[in-house]
């Protein structure tokens, strides 16, 4: 029966111009660490242990190997549907989620503010209950983290944070997969953040220490990370024996860093602050001068879209820049998130060394 199914799927793939093949897509061996994420929400990496985050990265590598490099078709989400709520526009989050969910055999449904206006046309409670009856999961890219919290409380299906004002967990998974692929291991790396104390930095602070990574962050005065996030991050660093430092000096944060990281200085919804922010962030552009004080094996990350005032072309387009593999890995990591929250699949790839 399995052979006949594979034969039919292979023929269908060829008819549609695809060059992948369907092989035996049995699950791997049961996990020794018994990580079980099925049915959970992903609102912030604060809610996940180091082993659970490592599992998602392991699964990302597994799917990338089997689908991209070995050409397999894995319909792990066959018959499942995903509601995608986007209050903010997006390139990478939307494309990676839509194409990734479809590649796994599922049906993604994109909803803009013209289709669904959270808490306005319909209460968040009612929206959560309706979506729970028609989809298997929801990815929401919203302005307020509190909206995600309400959706998660009222929904009976997994809710995934596609970005909020406080956190952007699915971006950080892609960052870590990229660094894992480049360095071979994450433990002991020093991450140097130079920029705004925003949702990206918050997500790093909620997870880096769990991998044994150190964090050195520089933000302008008045743009520091949220105090409650900082307090918890300091606790994580103490528990995991890592170092975390906050400064207003970009070169101090970059000194000895393996990974130079920045982000947009002006996020969606902050356009009116542009002039003020550009002035506050003077001296924060990542350049080769910044890189000179970093570790000899330094690399650069930016979650995109990028503006030249944030990082100059010499760094952004250099061989040390990992921004485009980082962007591609948004796809493999969000696929892993959806598979882990919706199925019992376990990786066949040997677990990487983190």
TrEMBL record:
Claim: Amino-acid biosynthesis is one of the keywords in the record: yes
Positions of the Aspartate/ornithine carbamoyltransferase carbamoyl-P binding domain: 40-181
GO molecular function annotation: amino acid binding; ornithine carbamoyltransferase activity
Domain Aspartate/ornithine carbamoyltransferase Asp/Orn-binding: 187-340
Keywords: Amino-acid biosynthesis, Arginine biosynthesis, Mitochondrion, Transferase, Transit peptide, Urea cycle
EC annotation from Swiss-Prot or TrEMBL: 2.1.3.3
Biological role: Catalyzes the second step of the urea cycle, the condensation of carbamoyl phosphate with L-ornithine to form L-citrulline. The urea cycle ensures the detoxification of ammonia by converting it to urea for excretion.
Record's subunit section: Homotrimer.
Family: Belongs to the aspartate/ornithine carbamoyltransferase superfamily. OTCase family.
Protein known as: Ornithine transcarbamylase, mitochondrial
Protein's organism: Puma concolor (Mountain lion)
